[in-house]
Amino acid sequence: MPNTIALAKNYTSLLDEVYRNASVTADLTSDPAMSRAGANANEIIYPQISVTGLGDYDRNSGYTTGAVDLKWQTVSFNYDRGTKISVDVMDNEESRNLAFGMAGATLMRDKVAPEADAFTFATISGIDGITKTTGTIAGPQQFLEALLTAWSEMDEDEVPQEQRMLYATATLLNSVMSLDTTKSREILAKFAVKKVVPQARFYTAIDMMDGKTAGEELGHYKKSDAGADINFMILHKPAIIKFDKHTASNIIPAASNPDADADIIKYRKYGLVDAYKNKRAGIYVSSKA
């Protein structure tokens, strides 16, 4: 679609920007050493291991014979998004070089980071075998009880307590922090990471706009009709697979643009969000519906 850059007056050097948080899911990025290239270019494989248990020891014959089962699971990349933004050199000049200079940062902050978070949470919410609860949480006391219930269920499922990460809406997390009681502090202190997630990124399902068809020209994402608002999510980091295979971000100057007298910013990210099949107890999602 055409650029909509308001030309600055000669004496104006300010740029009106929208406030946006950076990505809140960057902490979930997996160790690249835990995966390797698959047989096809659009796949990676990761290890899944299990061992047999103990048997009776016999003083004559000794140990029972155990076994190790190491399998390499194959999974296809599920995220491939990008955009190309061009800024006419005169638009840029007449906006005091702000238009192009800020376009890349604005793209990352306003579009790339929110979409990456929304995709991560929605994809994890749709994984089979995770723990899901539904219902509206009214106030900090109910939220604390919900957190304790989730924590206890993970304990019963033998999920390690280390590296449990809490993601919650600002309304819920800030309400508990405002209590500032011994109980609230102790519960929040259990989590290795506590992150506020804007509700606009926190849905169980989203629709990705393709940037081409009618009604989707602006790209980005929106809450799916089948999606629900997420209250909070507890993730054991080792349960998550989050890997960017390819990220391309570069600038093409107007002098190298054969189609127009405009500078171009290109951005593409190709990656994966998934969970280990034998660690799905490490994912707990509470949503409103």
Q: How would you characterize this protein structure?
A:
- This protein has about 290 residues and is of the alpha+beta class.
- Helices cover about 25% and strands about 30% of the residues.
- The chain contains five helices and 13 strands.
- The protein has helices at about 90-95, 100-125, 140-155, 170-180, 180-190; strands at about 35, 45-50, 70-75, 80-90, 130-135, 165-170, 195, 205-210, 220-225, 230-235, 240-250, 260-275, 285.
- The strands form four sheets. It has a five-stranded mixed beta sheet with strand order 5-13-10-6-7. A three-stranded antiparallel beta sheet has the order 1-2-3, with no helix packed on it. A three-stranded antiparallel beta sheet has the order 4-12-11.
- The chain is globular, with a radius of gyration of 24 Å.
Notable features of this structure?
289 residues; alpha+beta; three-stranded antiparallel β-sheet; 13 strands; 24% helix; globular
Topology:
Blueprint: E1 36-37, E2 43-51, E3 68-76, E4 79-88, H1 89-94, H2 98-125, E5 131-134, H3 139-156, E6 164-169, H4 170-179, H5 182-189, E7 193-197, E8 206-208, E9 221-223, E10 230-236, E11 240-252, E12 262-275, E13 283-287
Parallel strand pairs: 5-13, 6-7
Antiparallel strand pairs: 1-2, 2-3, 4-12, 6-10, 8-9, 10-13, 11-12
Helix pairs in contact: 3-4
